[in-house]
Amino acid sequence: MNHHTRKANGGRAAYLSLSTLALTLALSACQLSKPVPAAAQIESMSMRAAQQGDVVAESRLRDWAQRQVPVAQRELGLLYLARPDQRAEAQRLFMQAARAGDTEAAFQLAQMLRNGAPGIAAAPDQAIPWYRQAAQQKHARAALMLGMLFNNGEGVGADQAQGARWLSVSSDLGNAHAMFLLSNAYREGRGVERNEAHARQLLEEAAEHEYPPAIQELAMAVQTGDALSARDELRAAHLLKEAAEHRHNNWNRF
Q: Which SUPFAM superfamilies match (predicted)?
């Protein structure tokens, strides 16, 4: 092969390389220019991936997550959370989404840090800021967890007043468990001024939200009667039956 032929072949190779690079860049630009779906569409895609094992749906979630879409990062993290060998990656994705302001991601990250996972040591103290972030963004379960952690001194110094404060936030957001715990706090004067009337009001609200421990405790109160309510054995019987049914339904569900 002479010098001119080698030069021509080299020119063609360089041209092909540049053409391939240009095509790759064009495809990447095209991919990046595609509009990101709405959060509801991403969550629907996540359900397909989780419930149907749809590999195409999972691939799309990965693509959106790589494009730094917080909802996609969170949903992919939830998908990986169910796979023991991918939980470290789930934690990384939750961290990215939480830092971008995703409320549910902050809560899931806090849960992982509090409880630990295979290869991830439990660190309740590191969970506190993420629970707080989610609670401040009106995540009822995050506020509930903060209240419980402050009450129990887990990951933070025990502080009954702070515990009651966060339980109140969760209760106002409609969490029945928080209503029940806050009712006990008002009845016993833990972190708040003792107020039996408000305690009963919260207990009634928790029962209306079908929280079995609250229904059972309310049944015991009306069965014997007290300063807040007359004795009512018929209502007590109905409440006990309701509590048993809800416990049975929850057992079957989980």
A: HCP-like
Other residues' Cβ atoms within 10 Å of the Cβ of residue 30: 9
DSSP 177-209: HHHHHHHHHHHHTSSS---HHHHHHHHHHHHHT
Cβ neighbourhood burial of 48 (10 Å; 0-12, 13-18, 19+): middle
Contact criterion met (CB below 8 Å) for 200 and 229 = yes
Domains in the chain: boundaries: 1-32, 35-113, 138-254
In sequence order, what are the residues at sequence separation of 6 or more whose Cβ sits closer than 8 angstroms to the Cβ of residue 250?
212
DSSP-derived letter for residue 84 is G
CA distance to 60, 163, 174, 180, 186, per residue, from 167 (Å)? 38, 6, 11, 9, 11
Indicate the DSSP class of residue 157: -
pLDDT of residue 114: 96
CB 197 within 8 A of CB 229: no
pLDDT (mean) for 42-47:
95
**What are the distances in angstroms from CA 164 to CA 119, 150, 170, 193?**
34, 9, 10, 11
Place of tokens 């569409």: 41
Quick one: pLDDT band at residue 229, thresholds 50, 70, 90?
A: confident
CATH of the domain spanning 138-254: 1.25.40.10
How does the average pLDDT of the chain come out, rounded? 85
Average pLDDT over residues 235-248: 67
φ, ψ dihedrals at 120, nearest 5°: -125, 115
